[in-house]
């Protein structure tokens, strides 16, 4: 009888093969030539052409990660996302993003122990979560609340030194899976599953979320959750990461920054898209309906959830990994395969009709929901899973900016009157 770790090891090998294949296809289709002006040396002041929504704005320099939008590549601290996803534990990537390079065996051992030591969730947080009216409260609103409560329990929360904030970051990274799992179980009126300190971040998260051992779900589930957490960890100056940095730049506290970032990620134009992709695929319902549905969506100028990106004008590399993983998981489930086939057909159609003309391609959210659904996770929990991973990028970048902090404070052009005469109220008539 194979041990759990042996089964996980085999699962990692199966998944590695799929990712290496995806990487090969990506290398054949696009080169990783850095975009001019977006890599290399940097000093302020910079000239930039700005468009609505801060398009074109440069917030400063970073060593944490690079999103090559033109070519569809993603690097974390110089490592290609395909290599990290195919070969690393999520815990290695957390260490990489926080400390600047991959850990050696001893550093990783010690870091995993530290994360496990921080995993437990204070009872009062669970009590508050149990009081939140679950039917209509979105799990991201519950998550935002839980982080606020954690902040009130930390007597050192207002110490905004880099070391103190890094410790808060590591604690929150360790606790988020348990908080999200508790939210999921409470919503489903199920008992909470005690954390399993003997297993990986990914395994413990899946187990406490679904109540089932990842092996019972599928012997590649742990490996796939590990990859999903790696893929979502960091992504440049996206809306939620930028939000966290803006808040933290006032020297408030890391909890306040993360609460703000969660609020941003909840939005359907950002992390909330993955949940809506599933609703969209279920609405299409049948592979033969895809063309007609697409035509109608274009005619009514409907936003296609899971498509388009402010930075990627090429296929999102994370989608290149999640697509074959979604297919692999769907192979054992005819219902999921039906949804996968609809997704693949819509993917092909959008790439053909909008790829060249409007440079609209699938983004990370298009296939992630299919993966999570196949792992037995309810759609409402998809965005909180995104947060379980992205808390690493949020905290790493807030800490990076804090080291040479300057409060973020842009301007707006005033287009109103300049010399209005004040009329006493009795003479004002509307
Ligand atoms: C994430 O920033 C990040 O890095 C985010 C993220 C991360 O890891 O943090 O990658 C995660 O948030 C991915 C995006 C998830 N959101 C969605 O899938 C929602 C659907 N996508 C769109 O709403 C849109 O593509 C955005 C919000 C992602 C990007 O919006 P932009 O850059 O503001 O683009 P836009 O809305 O100005 O669109 C430009 C044109 C418009 O057409 P025109 O008016 O010029 O004719 O492209 C069209 C848009 O109508 N367009 C779409 C579309 N996305 C853009 N048309 C239909 N469906 C879409 N999805």
Short structural summary:
This protein has helices at 4-29, 81-87, 90-99, 105-117, 123-131, 139-153, 162-187, 201-210, 214-217, 221-231, 239-248, 254-265, 273-284, 290-299, 317-330, 334-358, 365-374, 382-402; strands at residues 65-68, 73-76, 79-80. The chain has 430 residues and is an all-alpha fold. The protein folds into two domains: 4-266 and 381-402, Citrate Synthase, domain 1; 275-372, Cytochrome P450-Terp, domain 2 (Cytochrome p450-Terp, domain 2).
Q: What ligands does this structure carry?
A: s-citryldethia Coenzyme A
Question: What topology, given as strand order, has the largest sheet?
Answer: 1-2-3
Q: Would you tell me the structural class of the helices and strands?
A: mainly alpha
**Beta-strand residue fraction:** under 5%
Number of domain modules: 2
CATH top level assignment of the largest domain:
Mainly Alpha
CATH superfamily label of the largest domain: Citrate Synthase, domain 1
Please describe the biggest sheet, giving its number of strands, its sense, and whether it closes into a barrel.
Answer: 3 strands, antiparallel
Shape: globular
**Mean pLDDT value:** 96
Helix and strand sequence? HEEEHHHHHHHHHHHHHHHHH
- Total beta strands: 3
């Amino acid at each position: 009888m194979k041990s759990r770790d042996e089964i996980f090891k085999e699962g990692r090998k199966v998944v590695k093969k799929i990712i290496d294949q995806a990487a090969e296809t990506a290398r054949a289709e696009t080169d990783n030539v850095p975009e001019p002006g977006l890599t290399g040396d940097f000093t302020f002041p910079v000239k930039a052409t700005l468009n609505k929504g801060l398009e074109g704005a440069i917030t400063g320099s970073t060593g944490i990660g690079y999103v090559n939008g033109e070519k569809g590549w993603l690097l974390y601290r110089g490592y290609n996302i395909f290599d990290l996803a195919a070969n690393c534990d999520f815990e290695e990537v957390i260490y990489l993003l926080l400390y600047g390079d991959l850990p050696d065996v001893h550093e990783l051992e010690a870091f995993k122990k530290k994360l496990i030591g921080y995993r437990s969730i204070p009872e009062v947080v669970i009590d508050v979560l149990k009081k939140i009216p679950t039917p209509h409260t979105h799990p991201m609103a519950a998550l935002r609340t839980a982080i606020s409560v954690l902040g009130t329990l930390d007597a050192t929360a207002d110490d905004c030194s880099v070391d103190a904030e890094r410790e808060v970051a590591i604690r929150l990274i360790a606790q988020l899976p348990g908080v999200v799992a508790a939210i999921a179980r409470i919503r489903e009126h199920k008992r909470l599953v005690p954390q399993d300190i003997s297993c990986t971040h990914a395994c413990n998260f899946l187990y406490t979320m679904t109540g089932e051992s990842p092996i019972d779900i599928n012997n590649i589930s742990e490996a796939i959750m590990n990859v999903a957490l790696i893929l979502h960890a960091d992504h440049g100056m996206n809306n939620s990461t930028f939000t966290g940095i803006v808040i933290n730049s006032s020297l408030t506290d890391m909890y306040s920054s993360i609460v703000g970032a969660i609020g941003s990620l909840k939005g359907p134009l950002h992390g909330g898209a993955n949940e809506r992709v599933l609703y969209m695929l279920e609405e299409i319902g049948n592979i033969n309906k895809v063309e007609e549905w697409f035509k109608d969506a274009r005619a009514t100028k409907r936003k296609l959830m899971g498509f388009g990106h402010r930075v990627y004008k090429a296929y999102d590399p994370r989608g290149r990994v999640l697509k074959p993983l979604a297919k692999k998981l769907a192979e054992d489930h005819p219902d999921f395969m039906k949804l996968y086939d609809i997704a693949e057909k819509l993917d092909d159609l959008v790439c053909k009709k909008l790829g060249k003309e409007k440079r609209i391609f699938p983004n990370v959210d298009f296939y992630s929901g299919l993966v999570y659904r196949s792992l037995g996770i309810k759609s409402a929990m998809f965005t909180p899973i995104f947060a379980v991973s992205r808390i690493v990028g949020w905290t790493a970048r807030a800490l990076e900016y804090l080291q040479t902090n300057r409060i973020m404070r842009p301007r707006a052009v005033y287009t109103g009157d300049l010399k209005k005469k004040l009329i006493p109220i009795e003479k004002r008539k509307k």
